[in-house]
């Protein structure tokens, strides 16, 4: 059975593809992995024991390929930055981190049901083992793909649930994990830059500033009603290593700008919500490029998805008749964001997807590129809360 030697990487710097081998044992990591060559070679004993979970505990974001005899394990990451897809063929099994690449083998069409679920729920694990293409399977989060002469299968390596932990015990562990991840990303690089906006990006910017100067940027469009700039200025004043720059908004830095020319967007396996803010991100990165050489840029994108549950889980608590707990959590969400608990208490009773647009309503500022009719502000607009156009017809 072909092993690691039969796999290839496209568009990866040489430093992001490393491997170790000893007889029938082989191990490769692809991506930003905080393990040195000696540790990688020592981990071959872990491969022999087939302790797959231990191979995912290094800091960073990476894909792992491990070969022990005639068994090959392909392990993605829990955050979904390195997904794994596969499809069986009469002659064997193809696997890839790109579903569209596997679909292109024979022109497999997209799966309209899976696409509808993806667009409606925006949660990858809702699809389970399905991808957005027919005949292409997805390895669910927390599971790995195992290839043997008898075929392919997925097995779970990450627990479904964990023992509850107090905030005082968990906080140091989260701090250490974030610090290690940032240090791993900065190792061997020169200049560093970061968004300085919400809690997530600000945390990473401050952690990066421990290692040296950081060019920090804040998108400060007056049409956005948020307090990102206020907190960014205060943070930059408190952390001398942060050199702060603001990015003013303009006619082109609005949601959905440039989407009329789809050829200008990168090809992805699935619709990407961040495509609607591509023009804003280009303006931010252009400002970075004006003030420093090419280096590492940190953002807080998807931090909430990794470190917390979406507020929609409050609806699950209500459906389970856990009214007191739902109310307590709603107040906690509101207190964290310095807003009224009303939206968190009322939203689960009427999901946003079911809300009817108000005809003729004035759109919020961040919908400047959309038709005015039918756009209703559900809450204070922010870069993470775009306003979608109403259905037509």
TrEMBL record:
<feature type="compositionally biased region" description="Pro residues">
    <location>
        <begin position="383"/>
        <end position="393"/>
    </location>
</feature>
<dbReference type="InterPro" id="IPR001962">
    <property type="entry name" value="Asn_synthase"/>
</dbReference>
<feature type="domain" description="Asparagine synthetase">
    <location>
        <begin position="173"/>
        <end position="328"/>
    </location>
</feature>
<dbReference type="InterPro" id="IPR029055">
    <property type="entry name" value="Ntn_hydrolases_N"/>
</dbReference>
<feature type="region of interest" description="Disordered">
    <location>
        <begin position="353"/>
        <end position="393"/>
    </location>
</feature>
<dbReference type="InterPro" id="IPR014729">
    <property type="entry name" value="Rossmann-like_a/b/a_fold"/>
</dbReference>
<dbReference type="Pfam" id="PF00733">
    <property type="entry name" value="Asn_synthase"/>
</dbReference>
<protein>
    <recommendedName>
        <fullName>Asparagine synthetase domain-containing protein</fullName>
    </recommendedName>
</protein>
């Amino acid at each position: 059975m072909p092993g690691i030697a039969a796999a290839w990487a496209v568009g990866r710097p040489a430093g992001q593809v490393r491997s170790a081998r000893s007889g029938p044992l082989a191990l490769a990591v692809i991506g930003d992995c905080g393990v040195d060559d000696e540790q990688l070679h020592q981990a071959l004993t872990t491969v022999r024991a087939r302790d797959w979970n231990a191979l995912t505990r290094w800091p960073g974001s990476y894909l792992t390929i491990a070969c022990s005899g005639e068994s090959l394990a392909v392990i993605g990451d829990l955050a979904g930055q390195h997904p794994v897809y596969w499809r069986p063929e009469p002659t064997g099994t193809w696997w890839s981190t790109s579903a569209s690449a596997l679909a292109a083998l024979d022109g497999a069409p997209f799966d309209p049901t899976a696409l509808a679920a993806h667009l409606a729920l925006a949660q990858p694990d809702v699809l389970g083992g399905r991808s957005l293409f027919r005949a292409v399977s997805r390895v669910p989060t927390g599971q790995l793909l195992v290839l043997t002469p008898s075929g392919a299968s997925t097995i779970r390596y990450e627990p479904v649930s964990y023992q509850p932990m107090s905030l005082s015990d968990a906080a140091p562990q989260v701090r250490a994990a974030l610090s290690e991840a940032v240090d791993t990303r900065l190792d061997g690089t020169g200049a560093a830059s970061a968004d300085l906006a919400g809690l997530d990006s600000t945390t990473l910017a401050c952690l990066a500033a421990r290692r040296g100067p950081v060019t920090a940027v804040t998108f400060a469009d007056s049409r956005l009603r948020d307090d990102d700039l206020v907190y960014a200025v205060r943070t930059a004043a408190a952390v001398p290593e942060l050199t702060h720059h603001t990015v003013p908004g303009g006619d082109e830095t609005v949601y959905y700008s440039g989407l009329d020319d789809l050829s200008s967007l990168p090809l992805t396996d699935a619709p990407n919500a961040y495509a609607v803010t591509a023009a804003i991100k280009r303006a931010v990165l252009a400002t970075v490029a004006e003030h420093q050489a090419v280096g590492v840029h940190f953002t807080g994108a998807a931090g909430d998805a990794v470190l917390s549950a979406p507020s929609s889980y409050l609806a699950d608590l209500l459906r389970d008749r856990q009214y007191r707990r739902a109310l307590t959590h709603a107040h906690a969400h509101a207190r964290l964001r310095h807003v009224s608990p009303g939206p968190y208490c009322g939203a689960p009773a009427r999901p946003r997807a079911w809300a009817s647009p108000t005809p003729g309503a004035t759109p919020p500022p961040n919908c400047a590129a959309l038709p005015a009719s039918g756009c209703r502000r559900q809450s204070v607009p922010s870069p993470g809360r775009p306003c979608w156009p109403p259905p037509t017809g």
